[in-house]
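Example record

One chain of 178 residues, shown exactly as stored in the release files.
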Amino acid sequence: MNGRHAAPTPDPGHGTDDGSDPGKAPEDHAGFVAVSVRLTGFDEFDLRATGLVRLYHDTTLDQVGRPAVGRFLADLDAAGGDPDRITDETSRDIARAITHLWYLGVWPQLARSTHAALRRERANTAFVVSPEAYTEGLVWRTFHGHPPGAKPPGHGTWAAAPPGAPVRPVARRTEGAA
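Predicted structure tokens for this chain:
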């Protein structure tokens, strides 16, 4: 990534400065995972399996700031935990950004009004947070797909219909047809 975005990028397989596994979030990220479960509709196991909990948590804090995340969490709580019932525009946009991040691996450009309300000095631009974020995006799981060029499904898997696909009748050739 370019130097404009300070989202920390873990080095897969090498741990972090504190000796922990970079993909495994410590218990203090449990709240972020719980909120992410509500926003994405995926369970904790699926979110942690991406190995990106810590990176997404840190990216969110880096992009909107701890005070804004605190207000978002308070608004989500006031909405009974239902993201669709959040009324504050800034908190709704933060919810949208976190959801976008999980599904596409991209921190999105925030609405101008949200960026202005946050008074952040960061550039308001979309960016891919890491190469792993693209391949681990939840979007691929929604339709049992695979990210092109990154996670090939394996030899011959193209021959079977994806799970849940309607069964299509096989066309038969008739005699004399060219």
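Notes: The first strand starts at residue 106 and ends at 107.
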